[in-house]
Amino acid sequence: MKKMLVLCACILLPLYAVSAFASDGSWDQVKKNGKLMIGLDDSFPPMGFRQADGKLVGFDIDAAEEVGKRLAIKIEWQPTAWDGVIHSLNAKKFDCIWNGMTITEARAKEVAFTKPYVMDGQIAVINFKEKRFKGLSDLKGVRVGTQKGSSGLEAVKKLPTAPAALKEYEDYPKALLDLEAGRIDVVVIDNVTGRDFIAKRPGKFKTVPGMISKEPFGIGFRKDDRDLREKVQLTLDKMVKDGTMKKISKKWFAEDITNPKKF
Length: 263
What we know:
By secondary structure, the chain is α/β, with parallel strands linked by helices.
């Protein structure tokens, strides 16, 4: 765990340190446009997802809308395929990625992250009636599913035994449908999202005890957009300090998982 925290620190510090460079105009442009365009996978509860009426809701939605309110700009959401979200960001289809995005060394080469705002991890979800798996070490010769382009792909590599088969899905709901139908044995998924699916489908799924990995969430920006990233970061810092992030966290998770001291 200590080694992981040191690694995270080494990756993150140069990414969210306050810049001493001249203004790059990124915040000025967003302010001029009057809106911050955010890319996301809109089927990722409880971070960002659609209600039955089509309304976009979730932890990240509430947090971003509050940032927009404080900066006097509108938040505009741009649903996009997760496996191409970084390419879309750097192609300037939106201004940032705010959607439970795990900070990884590979991603840090392509985007600049804020400080972590949530600590999450990867878990293994199985069919509720499954009795073979008492712990992660029991996941031998299994068929695993996870989302394309997700940190779940890296987590699969950390399983004690390589899977017999690995299937990548456009989104987690499709993976869970295959799990329920018995076409795969395990879904590797973010802890907060997996537990949300389990809570909403009682008697369908359960978790294998243990966490495959622990991962910090950050907001991703283009590397050149230092001003915009710092403006959002400073606003988030104020929201942590005044208790707003804690309030939003308790609404969606029933506990505070945004405390920076935990990281």
